[in-house]
Structure to design on (128 residues):
């Protein structure tokens, strides 16, 4: 068995985690997907050839399990964010509708204080 080959696979498996987070950060998972497809093929081929160390196989399974947990977490986070955003939008819409209704003019308006205290206009005082 080639320890160098297994060390390279180990390094690529761990580096794929960084590729995952880079893909999340840039909203572009193409590099991550391509890298993971190549790693998966190399791990499968080396296992079939009997040159994959038990430790590397264990690392591959662990990284895959961890990736699954991360994907599930991000999916759940997105669903929860969308749910809360919709709830917030409904709350804002309801609040705006309530405020619009409470500030609308009504027929029982009291006279403006300005109208009650204003001085007579010059044209009305010239009639005196």
């Amino acid at each position: 068995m080639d320890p160098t080959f297994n060390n390279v696979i180990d390094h690529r498996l761990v580096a794929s985690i960084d590729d995952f987070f880079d893909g999340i950060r840039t909203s572009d998972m193409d590099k991550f997907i391509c890298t993971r497809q190549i790693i998966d093929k190399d791990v499968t081929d080396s296992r079939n050839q009997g040159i994959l160390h038990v430790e590397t196989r264990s690392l591959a399974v662990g990284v895959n399990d961890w990736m699954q947990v991360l994907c599930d977490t991000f999916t759940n986070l997105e669903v929860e964010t969308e749910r809360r955003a919709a709830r917030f939008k409904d709350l804002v819409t309801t609040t705006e509708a309530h405020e619009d209704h409470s500030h609308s003019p009504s027929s029982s308006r009291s006279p403006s204080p300005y109208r009650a205290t204003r001085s007579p206009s010059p044209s009305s005082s010239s009639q005196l």
About this structure: The chain is about 80% helix and 0% strand.
